[in-house]
Amino acid sequence: MLILGIETSCDETAAAVVKDGFTPLSSIVSSQVDIHHPFGGVVPELASRKHIEAIVPVVHEALENAGVHASQIQGVAATQGPGLVGSLLVGFSFAKAFAYSMDLPWIGVNHLEGHINSVFLEPDPPPFPFVVLLVSGGHTAIYHVTSHTDIELMGQTRDDAAGEAFDKVSKMLGLGYPGGRVVGEMAAKGDPGKVKFKRPYLDKKEYDFSFSGIKTGVNRYIQSMGIADESQIRDIAAGFQEAVVDVLSYKLLHAARQRNCDHTAIVGGVAANTRLRDKVTDEASRIGLEIHIPSPDLCGDNAAMIASVGFHYLKRGILSDLRSDVYSRVKI
Ligand SMILES: Nc1ncnc2c1ncn2[C@@H]1O[C@H](COP(=O)(O)OP(=O)(O)OP(=O)(O)O)[C@@H](O)[C@H]1O
Ligand SMILES: [Mg+2]
Known about the structure:
Layout: E1 2-7, E2 12-19, E3 23-31, H1 33-36, H2 44-66, E4 75-81, H3 85-102, E5 106-110, H4 111-117, E6 130-135, E7 140-145, E8 151-156, H5 162-172, H6 180-188, H7 212-225, H8 230-258, E9 263-267, H9 274-286, E10 290-292, H10 296-299, H11 304-315
Parallel strand pairs: 1-4, 4-5, 6-9, 9-10
Antiparallel strand pairs: 1-2, 2-3, 6-7, 7-8
Helix pairs in contact: 2-3, 4-11, 5-7, 5-8, 6-8, 8-9
Bound molecules: adenosine-5'-triphosphate and magnesium ion (MG).
């Protein structure tokens, strides 16, 4: 079954064609980062307008790269939420119109289920059940996954998401927006032992997180010590990253052991972080757990993960209504 997936929840216009839920034939992601960069964050009104401009060319490119004609598509899936309402509406309305005009089944997909299912777009995906850490710009949570669509929340951040903390620390260090990747690059050249930050909730048994304290710690350090040169930026970035990665890694592996799962995974934009990938891979192999992390391209927002989830619903005959609406917030 060939599914056209569409993702416009934030500042990427994405379309993909996925075969039978697991094989991406194409995945196009058009980023708006240059438009939002001068403002230091995503401007919702600009994001919606850019999605309107980009959606048709991006879908064309996805079909072309897949070597598929629109008439061969058998189902459509689009992100329904969570995200920016104006952005979501562009992709969601496009998907409805495409499905209606081609007389195809279609479904609105939860963006977070999309991220979790991104591990199935890689060879050697985890068997069920497994425990997954979703770590992105808006979410940081641990789930127990028993099927593609049966996902139980075990714990989540009580304040900021880890990606949000990376973005804020980037601003504090004068590294601009978006911040995760550049903070990671700086951290890789710094000494993580020079500046130590607290590891909130590390001693707690449950799987909740808190990142606003680390963020405030970085701010206080900069206020009191100032930033003398680039080597200090690197050391602060490294100290911050190490604190975040320690907490994420400890909680994920602890949750997997507690649920007797031999397989774990990390998904979402922050899963592209090299230090997080390396640390969790090392620690997991030390205690005999297998870790699954999608390639960096599939960690950030993409439409292949949305098409993949759509396939699992459409296969079971679960469809969306043409009158259905998008939602800005939603849980699993
Ligand atoms: N190499 C990296 N190291 C750390 N963080 C990173 C890296 N690359 C990207 N990020 C962070 O990932 C986040 C973006 O991830 P993603 O696109 O999944 O989030 P989102 O879609 O905005 O939020 P959500 O999925 O929660 O709705 C940003 O906060 C970004 O800073
Ligand atoms: Mg996302």
